[in-house]
Amino acid sequence: MEALRIEGLKKKFGETEVIRELSFSVPEHSVFGFIGKNGAGKTTTMKMILGLLKPDAGKIQVFGESVSYGETKTNRFTGYLPDVPEFYSYMTASEYLRLCGEIAGLASGEIRRRSAELLELVGLTDNKKRVGGYSRGMKQRLGIAQALLGNPRLLICDEPTSALDPVGRKEILDILFKLKGRTTVIFSTHILTDVERICDRVGVLSEGRIVLSGEMEALKKQYAQDKVMMEFPKEKQEEVLAVLKAQHLEPLHTEVVEPSLEKLFLEVI
Ligand SMILES: Nc1ncnc2c1ncn2[C@@H]1O[C@H](COP(=O)(O)OP(=O)(O)OP(=O)(O)O)[C@@H](O)[C@H]1O
């Protein structure tokens, strides 16, 4: 089943056509990376999926039901983490989840059970701090817990990792990865390494259209080159080259690869 289908979506702000002719779909249970540079129209698209912004043209369906602007019927399927989630700073995480659960009309036993599960999922169990003292990463994690409170089939996250350091990003990606197979996840980003880590499908938004989309593995194969990369420790390099030479195997290209700064940072932290 399709979690989301968008067809011929258009949106202008004044004279600026932000979304020109947007069509794509997201199968249920996938983790979909919605990629686009700053200002590409990712948030605008997400707001239209949530019925918070009126499209000029086009059709949006969530689990087969049409989204209408101003109506939140289809949002019963959906959890949403905005790019900058707002909280009451004087509350603790569990107080905040209780409030959200009460507003959503959940029974108090259900709120207690779901909150405990979700705080565990996002690594905030036993955190007695008030949200005002949280780091950005902790706020994003609490935001994910809140978005999942109603057990949505579709979780939409707007740039959940963009403002975080590599450790905070990894924590968020690990949480989203754990949802794989249970909840369909759409997350927008311009950080391609994040997409590579957890997404099985992608859509690249540019000039108001999807310019590349599909399954990650299929795309990689389609654009793959016939190339093999092997890693050896530095002290083994001469040995490896000697073996290759003895076998009359000449590499087309040899390069000493420096570790990425991100890898180094994660290792030392
Ligand atoms: N309410 C609005 N009125 C006028 N212009 C808007 C409005 N909302 C968004 N825009 C413009 O539409 C374009 C797309 O914005 P949007 O926030 O959807 O992009 P984005 O891909 O989410 O970018 P970012 O990564 O910076 O959040 C931008 O040029 C933005 O300035």
Protein architecture, described:
The strands form 2 sheets. This protein has a 6-stranded mixed β-sheet with strand order 6-7-8-3-9-10, with helices on both faces. The protein has helices at 42-49, 93-103, 108-121, 136-148, 166-178, 192-198, 216-222, 237-246, 261-268; strands at 2-13, 16-27, 31-35, 57-62, 65-66, 78-81, 154-157, 184-189, 201-206, 209-215. 34% of the residues lie in helices and 24% in strands. The protein folds into 2 domains: 2-222, P-loop containing nucleotide triphosphate hydrolases (Rossmann fold); 234-268, no CATH class. With 269 residues, it is α/β, with parallel strands linked by helices. It binds adenosine-5'-triphosphate. Adenosine-5'-triphosphate binds at residues 13, 18, 36, 38-44, 83, 159. Residues 4-232 form the ABC transporter domain. It comes from Bariatricus massiliensis. Keywords: ATP-binding, Nucleotide-binding, Transport. GO terms for molecular function: ATP binding.
Q: What is the H level of CATH, i.e. the homologous superfamily of the largest domain? A: P-loop containing nucleotide triphosphate hydrolases
Bound molecules: adenosine-5'-triphosphate
Which geometry do the CA atoms define? Answer: globular
CATH topology of the largest domain: Rossmann fold
- The proportion of strand residues reads 15-25%
Total discrete domains = 2
What is the count of β-strands? 10
Give the rounded overall mean pLDDT: 90
Order of helices and strands: EEEHEEEHHHEHEHEEHHH
Q: Can you tell me the CATH class of the largest domain? A: Alpha Beta
Which class best fits the helix and strand makeup? alpha/beta
**Major beta sheet, strand line-up:** 6-7-8-3-9-10
Question: How many helical elements?
Answer: 9
Reported CATH architecture of the largest domain:
3-Layer(aba) Sandwich
Low-confidence stretches: none
Rg calculated over all Cα atoms: 22 Å
N- to C-terminal distance? 41 Å
Organism: Bariatricus massiliensis
Domain ABC transporter: 4-232
Family: Belongs to the ABC transporter superfamily.
InterPro entries: AAA+_ATPase, ABC_transporter-like_ATP-bd, P-loop_NTPase
